[in-house]
Specification:
Helices cover 61% and strands 0% of the residues. α3 packs across α4 and α4 crosses α6. It is mainly α. It starts with 7 loop residues before the first helix and ends with a helix. It folds into two domains: 1-45; 46-167, no CATH class. The radius of gyration is 24 Å and the shape is flat.
């Protein structure tokens, strides 16, 4: 386990697979219970640990909600039978989510720069709490018009000041 040649879970599975449970397996299970108890005590005593864990959970839930919104036409299910097709669908979903996050990050940065220049950004350290996982401004269903000349004119859309005014 130390040099990484075997995973702890594989070792425990082998130890617990026998007809009669191995003493080492039982001892390792007890050590696991002790570790879990120590973590729970840290959790109870440390409000910052609880806040950090909750923030991480919230980010994960927001990402899953975005994925569900993007994939709503299939009710969140991949109906392809072959593993390759399922993997392609999952990779395409991740690509669309990454594009949305990139787009949002780019425009959040643009809005923050605008507010900074205008002297209306109260505390720049709060920007680390702004999530790029929103999608209400993105048309997830409907008709799309692809203007091939738009990329030559500008690679960015203008910043909508109505959104920026909400923050300022």
């Amino acid at each position: 386990m130390k040099n990484g040649s075997v995973k702890p879970s594989a070792l425990l599975r082998k130890l617990g697979a026998g007809r009669q449970q191995n003493r080492l397996y039982l001892a390792l299970g007890e050590i696991g219970r002790i570790e879990r108890t120590l973590f729970m005590l840290d959790w109870i005593e440390n409000p910052q640990l609880r806040q950090e864990s909750q923030a991480g959970l919230n980010k994960g839930e927001a990402r899953h909600t975005l994925a569900k919104a993007v994939f709503a036409h299939s009710h969140g299910r991949i109906n392809d039978r072959s593993p390759d097709a399922q993997q392609k669908r999952a990779m395409a979903l991740n690509l669309v989510i990454a594009a949305i996050i990139y787009w949002n990050t780019m425009y959040i940065n643009k809005a923050a720069d605008y507010l900074q220049r205008a002297g209306k950004l109260p505390d720049p350290s709060l920007l680390k709490h702004v999530s790029p996982l929103g999608w209400t401004h993105i048309n997830l269903t409907g008709d799309y018009v692809w203007d091939s000349g738009a990329a030559e004119r500008s690679n960015e859309r203008p910043l909508h000041l109505s959104y920026v005014r909400k923050w300022g």
